[in-house]
Amino acid sequence: MSMEVKKKVEEIISQMTLEEKAAQMIQVPVAMVGMEQAKEWARRGVGSFLHALGDDARELQKVAVNESRLKIPVVFGIDAIHGHGLNRNATIFPSQLSMASTWDRDLVEKIGHATATEVATDGLHWTFSPVLCLGRDPRWGRISETFGEDKYLSGELGASMIKGYQGDDLSADDSILACAKHFIAYGEATGARDAYDTQITYRKIKDEFLPPFKKAVEAGCATFMTAYGSVDGTPLTADRKALHDILRDELKFDGFLITDWDNVNALIRRQKVCDNIGDASALAAKAGNDMIMCSTEFYEGIIEQVKSGKVDEAQLDEAVRHILTIKFRMGLFAKPDKKGVPGSIGCEAHRELALKAARESVTVLTNDGVLPVRKKKLRKVVVIGPNADDIRAQYGDWTYFTHPVPGKYTEPQRPYVTLLEGVRNSLEGSGIDVEYSYGCSVNGRSYYKGDYPDTEAFMKQVYEDNRLDNDGTKEMPYINEAASIARGADLIILALGDNYNQMGEYNDRAELRLSGMQEALIRILSTMKIPLITVLITSKPLAVPEVVRDSDAVICAFNGGMYGGQAVSEVIFGDFNPEGRLPISFPVVTGQVPVYYNQLPGWHEGRYVDCPAEPLFAFGEGLSYTWYEYSDIKFDADTKTVSVKVTNTGKVKGVETVQIYIDDVVSSVMTANKNLAGFAKVELASGESKTVSIKLDDDAFSVVLPDETRVIEPGKFIIMAGHSSKDEDLIRLAVEL
Ligand code: BGC
Q1: pLDDT-based confidence at 404, cuts 50/70/90?
Q2: Neighbouring C-beta atoms of residue 509, cutoff 10 Å
Q3: Atom 2 of ligand 1 has which residue's CA nearest to it?
Q4: pLDDT tens profile 275-299
Q5: Exposed (0-12), middle (13-18) or buried (19+): which is 712, by Cβ within 10 Å?
Q6: Which residues touch 38 (CB under 8 Å, ≥6 apart)?
């Protein structure tokens, strides 16, 4: 921080009343309180608003800088998670989990920058992204918000995204604040029930869950968000060890820390560690939270605590110091409204980027030879399934569908391309007949559009129904219709998966099989002896061994964003050579969870008697239309660089993701048999070889000891390089350090 900023911040703090300091620490949800109350808060000197868009934000900012005593500008936050998705004109990129399937740092940075530009153009300053929790239990509703199960991949992509959002200069017109969330271990909730307690130790936290957040600090992330959950009975909101000792003292985070939604009231209502707002406010402030999201009662609570001598006012000064410093670094005092880049919301360049991201994320999981499909042999193609033409499923969480303006059931703004439309585009002018059938719903409820008088009624029904307890047999007529349409076809493209009401907050799942009548649908279609390609449009890994058995090819698209359907179709018809790699493992059955690849070893082969030892699909897996061979692995201990020769042995050009794993052969605490330590994407023409050099982090060779210190223990390490985390895909080199 420059001396000049420091001086200005201290000057303002010296002029602030206790009430103004308390207000500066609060973030008010505009959609919940309404514009009139929000303006009242602006006059009082509130620190931040969330979920206001465009003109509303500009109006509130005017009130803050003209009508509050000290004229401190407000910082506006929004959940722009994969694009500025709450604005229905914005570019919708693939979900974070889909993005992670690209393993492309540069692309993720560009998506961050495009999103920042659109958010800033809407007059906003801050996105609550990226999520750096690890997605290790796919039952968790928020899996699609993560970069998958691995700490290294999450850290690398998270840092790229942060750089994309913030750029080099927080005051630039196209820069917004990033927010690393949710600190910490939120993804580890027991039983994958959102925000439940976790029993892990701080040694484990430092070893497994802290590394991506450390990278976020190193990338200059301006804000962090406290998790909802608790570790061994201590709510994170009250956990000074996590929020202060680790975040500030160890990681040297110098931005500001915001709680998650209503965390202070949760200390009373849910976590029951306080019985009044004064104590809850004191606890949250003392633990190190700088800004309080939504629990506006904190205002009275903390003022009372300071007045009664239970909280030192210096505690508030420290929080306000963190907030004001960022506001100065953003240049907010000089320029309270972000300009962005006029015309950039949903612009062509950003949409092209969304298409590129969707293409790179498509991951081919099995292929019995049907892919790529040669158009020449086709006369009739049928596209079937609940997710073939449902843009909500393709978009995934955090768009105006999952977070709609109350009472409005709107369809999204074009352009977007569903899988059905993508197939029609790919086959346009070819003379091939494309037919479509809905098949069944994802949850046993008939959402067949034709059953409703108009779109409004259809969307209303869909939004209102959030259950899985419907009688799926009523859908047999749709399944029969699908089978009869498929008769005589040369190819079936079947889109299965989940939908918005099975993902996100409040939507954890106990069962990871395909829901509703989807298994019946594929079973019936597979008996027709027509080549069958199944596309999983899903927010998470599903337990789908039957799909693998019954399909000639399985493609995972996750939530591909506005061009997800087009990207999948290009892969199917060979216009794009697939390069996606799974950032998360798929279980064979739900009870096999967790199946993440880097669990600590046990014995008895880690196997249940009633399912295979291996996951259905492993971390890092993904097929191409060519093959890659690995040889000549070397390691330079001085620069910690691995080099390996990769050859494209197939007939077409392709992009391989070279993955490096490390096994710490003997260590004083247990380590996984392999941990991802580096990766790089490389393009290779048919027959071409390249030597790829990948520099590893120092941390790649370290362990966290029981006393919570991280050390490198000298000795033997095995370095592995290859196509996926599977043993058979890796070549090895033993080294001494
Ligand atoms: C979520 C956060 C989100 C916040 C604001 C919370 O419920 O946990 O991830 O940023 O709401 O919308």
Answers
A1: low
A2: 21
A3: 260
A4: 999 999 999 999 999 999 999 999 9
A5: middle
A6: 28, 30, 49, 52, 60
**Top mutation candidate among 76, 261, 293 for ligand 1, by most atoms within 8 Å of CB:** 261
Ligand 1 atom having least distance to the Cα of 77: 5
For CA atoms 324, 326, 328, 330, the dihedral sign is: negative
Domain ranges across the chain: 1-78+296-329, 348-574, 628-736
DSSP category for residue 248 = I
Q: Which two tokens stand for residue 343?
A: 């015309």
Is domain 348-574 given the CATH code 3.40.50.1700 in the classification? Answer: yes
Neighbours of 709 (CB within 10 A): 11
Cα 554 from Cα 563, distance rounded (Å) = 19
As a dihedral over the C-alpha atoms of residue 346, residue 349, residue 351, residue 355, rounded to 10 degrees, the angle is -170
Q: Is 260 a catalytic residue?
A: yes
Instruction: Give Cα separations from 433 to 47, 376, 378, 491 (angstroms).
Output: 58, 13, 9, 11
In the chain, the largest separation of any two C-alpha atoms, in whole Å, equals: 82
pLDDT in tens, 621-655: 999 999 999 999 999 999 999 999 999 999 999 99
Q: How far is Cα of residue 596 from the mean position of the Cα atoms in its chain?
A: 17
Pocket mutation for ligand 1, best pick of 260, 262, 397 (most atoms within 8 Å of C-beta) = 260
Active-site hit among 260, 337, 508, 552: 260
Tell me which residue of 130, 136, 285 sits closest to 198, measured CA to CA.
136
Q: Into which CATH architecture does domain 628-736 fall?
A: Sandwich (2.60)
CA 720, chain centre distance (Å): 27
pLDDT tens digit string along 153-188? 999 999 999 999 999 999 999 999 999 999 999 999
The reply to whether 628-736 shares the fold of 348-574 is no
Taking the whole predicted model, whether its pTM rises above 0.70 is answered as: yes
